From TrEMBL:
GO terms for molecular function: MAP-kinase scaffold activity. The lineage of its organism: Eukaryota, Metazoa, Chordata, Craniata, Vertebrata. Transmembrane segments: none annotated. This is AKP13 protein. GO terms for cellular component: actin cytoskeleton; membrane. It comes from the Eukaryota. One of its GO terms (biological process) is positive regulation of canonical NF-kappaB signal transduction. InterPro entries: Ankyrin_rpt-contain_sf, Rho_GEF.
Amino acid sequence: GDSVITVELTEEDKVEDDVVFYLVFTGSTVQHCTSTRKINPGSLETISPGHDCCETVKVALCASREGHPVLVVAEESFQFVQDEAYDAAQFLATCAGNQQALNFTRFLDRSRPPAADVDFLDEKVALAFRHLKLPAEWNVLGADQSLTENIPRETLMHFAVRLGLLRLTWFLLQQPGGRGALSIHNNEGATPVSLALERGYQKLHQLLTEEEAREPDSWSTLSHTVHSGDYSVKHHRGLDVYMLTAEA
């Protein structure tokens, strides 16, 4: 999701300014309707939806004009593929609370990837996480909620903070168990908060310690989503386009 899509109109489809174009993506269980913005008389821009599964969907370009019926201008197929970010998010989501798996992820820390790679990883994995269908009972601390905070263990929050993943940390903070993970020590006695301080991640430390900490500025060009039952509305701030997603 959140990739930019460009639509090139044919000569006969270039119409007056009062015509509004939409893209409608129809999958097996979910439908998305996105607004578009005009770059020039022959080109439109919008964002791809974050879909709930990897499949080929039908996408229709629709034109709307006040006082006239909605017209389907063109139809095409669009494929959602499973990439490394999706795999990583699935892996992390399923290994919440799994100590063997979480300790395995610590080898990433030894290679210390360049800042640009970390930023790319952060954005892609956080977006993939936001589009995963997590079970209603999913928790940052894993399935076993009988464990007390006094038992040293590795958590997903330790993983995100150790690599400096600001966006993923913000996402986890909003999930069940996210705040509780901040006070849990791992086997070295470090909490996610102390890890951020030790590594000099100032913005991350601020995010973890300020009660009124706001969404990271680095997400200002990405999307904000509001959920309501089977529907959600997303606003992409960078392009100023909106998307309505509904279960079909």
